[in-house]
Design goal:
Layout lengths: L7 E3 L1 H9 L3 E8 L2 E8 L1 E2 L5 E6 L3 H6 L2 E11 L4 E13 L3 H10 L10 E6 L3 E7 L13
Antiparallel strand pairs: 1-9, 2-3, 2-6, 4-5, 5-8, 6-7, 7-8, 7-9
Length: about 150
């Protein structure tokens, strides 16, 4: 992040707190050597790993298992020119342990497109960054609302 872009940089704790209230995020990965971005519903686990639930046969599960990916969520108020964006970078893994799968079935996110056989994907939060623009004002005090 460029410290001179006018946004306020968020620390890790602020980022994770904001992620807890976001219902939708985006998985950023590589598909056929090109960038791919997919919107997903998610939740955070007790250790702040990002959790997703998808079909065991999904292209997403196959593409990101064991791979370092990015995950982004945000909230924007276009009228007030304010909002935040958080990016989590880390290794994604399909949960294979039956006990862990059972636990996540009880507490994890519900798939919006249910399938007969579902898996959970964890993204370990190795790098967590974020930035915020509050009430249409940059850190320089420039008002963006006019």
């Amino acid at each position: 992040m460029n410290p001179n872009d006018g946004f306020r940089e968020l620390d890790r704790e602020e980022c994770l707190r904001l992620l807890e209230r976001a219902p939708i995020g985006r998985v950023v990965h590589t598909r056929h050597a090109l960038p791919a971005v997919l919107p997903v519903n998610f939740c955070l686990d007790i250790d702040y790993a990002v959790l997703m639930r998808t079909s065991a046969d999904s292209e997403l599960a196959a593409a990101i298992d064991g791979v370092v990916i990015a995950f982004e969520a945000d909230e924007v108020d276009a009228t007030a020119h304010s909002g935040w964006s958080v990016v989590v970078t880390g290794r994604a893994t399909v949960v294979t342990d039956p006990v862990e799968h059972g636990r996540l079935t009880r507490i994890g996110p519900r798939s919006w497109v249910a399938s007969p056989k579902e898996v959970f994907i964890r993204i370990e939060p190795e790098l967590v960054t974020g930035r915020q623009l509050v009430a249409g004002r940059t850190v320089y005090g420039v008002d963006l609302s006019s």
